[in-house]
Design goal:
Helix content: 55-70%
Strand content: under 5%
Radius of gyration: 24 Å
Number of strands: 2
Number of helices: 8
Largest sheet: 2 strands, antiparallel
């Protein structure tokens, strides 16, 4: 490996390692098949890639010698390129997976909570409707996680992905509980607004003060 390749290796983003991780399971796969695998596993706890992202990472991995591809023959009506991990790629992935570098904090971007944060600009019933819609969507995601768990349980090579999916199942169940608690909090807040003198008053804070110190 050249010094330039080593530099690129060090700069690989987690998404590149995730794509290489998909290739680490037995068999060769097309970019489309990798997309389907990501949507049935990775998206529940880390990343939902666009097909363009997957192909961009595959090109990068090929340039580094971590992946190799073959093009289908004339027997297939539509030519396909299938990708597989190389020995160098598997060694690099194993080193990254077992690395001692901190995995970093969880990044949470909760669209519903951003709307709730701006609740002073919204009608209470609209916030309640959004929270209820979030519950319904979460139930759908929970069903998808459980379906993926059934498939993972039938595949010996998916023992560790199954653990990640079980974590995701518990996370979705917790999200449903949090949504229920949010609805209860909204009800309490809405009721408190009917108490004379409660609206807009906080102890020791003027209207321009931030709700937290600093």
């Amino acid at each position: 490996m050249t010094s330039r390749q080593k530099s690129k290796k060090q700069d690989l983003p987690p998404t590149a390692w995730a794509v290489l991780g998909l290739l680490s399971f037995p068999g060769e796969r097309t970019g489309y098949e990798l997309k389907k695998w990501a949507d049935s596993s990775l998206r529940f706890f880390y990343w939902s890639p666009a097909i363009s992202q997957i192909y961009a990472e595959l090109r990068r991995l090929e340039q580094l010698g971590y992946a190799a591809s073959t093009r289908s023959g004339p027997e297939e009506i539509r030519a396909k390129r299938r990708y597989a991990i190389t020995d160098a790629g598997r060694a690099a992935l194993a080193g990254w997976a077992a690395g001692t570098t901190d995995a970093g904090p969880v990044v949470l971007k909760h669209g519903l909570l951003l709307r709730v944060w701006l609740g002073h600009l919204a009608e209470p019933e609209r916030l309640r409707a959004m929270a209820a819609g979030h519950q319904e969507r979460t139930r759908g995601e929970l069903a998808a996680v459980r379906e993926a768990l059934e498939h993972a349980g039938d595949t010996a090579d998916w023992a560790f992905p199954e653990l990640a999916l079980r974590w995701s199942e518990r996370q979705h169940l917790a999200e449903l509980e949090l949504a229920e608690a949010l609805l209860a909090d909204l009800a309490v807040l809405e009721a408190s607004r009917g108490v004379p003198g409660s609206e807009g008053e906080t102890s020791g804070q003027g209207p321009a003060d931030a709700p937290t110190g600093g």
